[in-house]
Amino acid sequence: MGNEGDPLVGVGDEAETVDHLCEDEEEEVDIELLKGGALKIAAKVAEGLGGVDTSITLEYLVSGAYNHVWLLKYLPKTAADTNDANEQINKVVLRIPKESAQSLHPYQLRHEVACLQFLCENLPDIPAPRVLNWDDRTGHAFIAQEFIDGQRLSVVWSQLAEDQKATITWSIANVVAKLGETRFDFIGGLDPDSQAGPTIEAGKIFNGRAKFHSHDCYNIGPYSDSKDYILSCYDREIYYYSHADKDDILMDAFENVTVPEFIESLRLEKENVSRNAQLFQALNAEPRVLVHEDFHAGNMLVRDGYLVGIVDWEFSGVYPLSELLGAIQLIQVSSPYRSESTEEEEEEWDRRYRQDLEKIVRQRGWSEGNIKALLEGGLPDFQKARTVMFPDG
């Protein structure tokens, strides 16, 4: 989901800040128009955290795919009368959902809040940002989260010494092992009130799918087992192609088949999959764990040669263990910092990372079945169901 979440800016002193740029170069952002509403939210957040109203400053960082991201600075009341007040200014990352963006609101925001709260309470050793305040009401929605002083690993990788790379990679492998030891009795997203919620997936948003994210259209989750989940993925695509506006459907994919013909093929495929008892037995035998879903160097923060932050949990979720590693290569060096040898180095460190991970989970006493599920990756039928579906060929 690398392009689906917010870009990693404004999370460290060395991170990029963007005044008028956004991920979509065609989008123009009127900073001053946005700032009025953002200041009201910032004042609420600062007051709740014990800040002095007159000390509030707000810096626009970036327009992500789903959020406007601001850096809030404020002076705590306890420091207002001290001589070193300027050195005690607190920083908070303020993320405000974009009203123009197709998203799974309010589920998307509620899930991220619940996920970060779960990590803070149950896995405090994983360096995820703490949620300081939040609201999911339309027109008032935001997440205020801890500012982490660090640089993106994808940006500084080439500047790190060999021993620093090894230390960071080992730390990342430990994070994955800890995520692999979480346990849930459902497949889905998280919710601050009810624990389980709908899955938050890009496949539910792509090309107008977000408007059908409702139990009135298909089962959006949570799901009791893998069969429930997989069949609902087919129902999502069947409902979409049956009800979507023609302008939303990528008609270039339908040169050899009509949309009604494709819908019928999805129904037949769903029926065939539903009879695959061996598939569901294998999936249901795996523990269900918390999966980040966008786990790569661009979403990891380092400082002084150590891992200090893992961000962008927006599209995380609870899935079978075999989905934990995913298909994304861990080390991805940002383009301005690449050289002729970068790709080879990325592959080498990805191999070392997987070796570290295997060593760690064996030390932690994982069963051979769980180790195999982790390292060999997800089952094709499960992974296909999770993606947006198009006609073959």
Give the averaged pLDDT, no decimals: 90
Q: Structurally, how many domains make up the residues?
A: 2
Q: How much beta, percentage-wise?
A: 5-15%
- Structural class comes to alpha+beta
Would you state the CATH class of the largest domain? Alpha Beta
- Taken in chain order, the helices and strands follow as HEEEHEEEHHEEHHHEEEEHHH
Provide the gyration radius in Å: 22 Å
CATH architecture grouping of the largest domain: Alpha-Beta Complex
Largest sheet: 5 strands, antiparallel
CATH topology of the largest domain: Aminoglycoside 3'-phosphotransferase, Chain: A, domain 2
| Spatial gap, N to C terminus | 24 Å
Lateral arrangement of strands in the main beta sheet: 1-2-3-5-4
Q: Low-confidence spans: pLDDT under 50, at least 5 residues?
A: 1-26
The total count of strands amounts to 12
Number of helices: 10
Shape: globular
The helix content, as a percent range, equals 25-40%
Walk me through the structure.
Keywords: Transferase. GO terms for molecular function: transferase activity. This is Phosphotransferase enzyme family. With 393 residues, this protein is of the alpha+beta class. It folds into two domains: 31-147, 2-Layer Sandwich (Phosphorylase Kinase, domain 1); 151-393, Aminoglycoside 3'-phosphotransferase, Chain: A, domain 2 (Alpha-Beta Complex). 35% of the residues lie in helices and 15% in strands. A five-stranded antiparallel beta sheet has the order 1-2-3-5-4, sandwiched between helices. A hairpin with a 3-residue loop joins strand 1 and strand 2. Helix 4 (162-179) packs across helix 8 and helix 5 packs parallel to helix 10. The radius of gyration is 22 Å and the shape is globular. The two termini are 24 Å apart. Mean pLDDT is 90; it is low at 1-26.
